[in-house]
Specification:
The chain has three helices and eight strands; from the N terminus they run H-E-E-E-E-E-E-E-E-H-H. The protein has 206 residues and is an alpha+beta fold. A hairpin with a 5-residue loop joins strand 4 and strand 5.
């Protein structure tokens, strides 16, 4: 059981840090999205390869368009941080700006994001609270355990929501199928009665 718990802690630590690198073409943009819980600290470190006359902007916003961090003409290296207020999908966008009629090249963008336990500065927390190294590590493990519990709770909630949605969809499909069958039976009955009256009017049947 202890080994499984350690594996879970290691997995959570790995998932709390995301690193990516890509090439940003001139006058284009690229956005990265991620779902985060409420009250989660997020930090990011980015690097932009230099290109004469070319500028790169970045912006961090939520699904409602609220800007959480923004910088025009970003330096070759920089950092940003924000804290989520609600459970939402957040996106980080990098935009390239190149003047017209200027020769341009693709710029290399590197981004490392951390959230939750990995984003906190426990050394600073320990110094401020005058904690011993073992106490700092215990606090980090406590926060990490809380994050794991919250993740499992969120997964369970999503599972319940998906199950309720599936059950509701199945019920609606069943009722729609029954309604369609009744409509077809009613239409078939009306068609038979109409043809019967038609043939009687033409004296083709008695």
């Amino acid at each position: 059981m202890d080994s499984l718990w350690k594996v879970g802690l290691l997995l959570c630590s790995a998932l709390c840090v995301n690193g990516i690198m890509w090439k940003l073409e001139p006058n284009t943009h690229k956005c990265l999205k991620e779902e985060l819980h409420q009250n989660v600290l997020v930090t990011g470190e980015f690097g932009v390869s230099e290109a004469p006359g070319q500028k790169v902007d970045y912006v961090v916003r939520d699904s409602k368009g609220h800007i959480l961090a923004q910088r025009e003409d970003a330096p070759s290296e920089g950092k940003f941080s924000f804290t989520t207020e609600t459970y939402d999908t957040f996106e980080i966008c990098f935009m390239s700006r190149v003047p017209q009629h200027q020769r341009s090249i693709a710029q290399e963008i590197s981004l490392i994001t951390k959230h939750g336990v990995e984003a906190k500065n426990y050394e600073g927390i320990g110094e401020a609270a005058k904690l011993k190294p073992i106490e700092v590590e215990l606090r980090r493990l406590e926060d990490l355990s809380s994050d794991i519990v919250n993740d499992f709770a969120m997964m369970r909630k999503r599972e319940e929501e998906m199950r309720d949605t599936n059950e509701s969809t199945n019920s609606r499909v069943l009722y729609f199928s029954i309604f369609s069958m009744l409509c077809l039976l009613g239409l078939a009955t009306w068609q038979v009665l109409y043809l019967r009256r038609y043939f009687k009017a033409k004296k083709l049947i008695e």
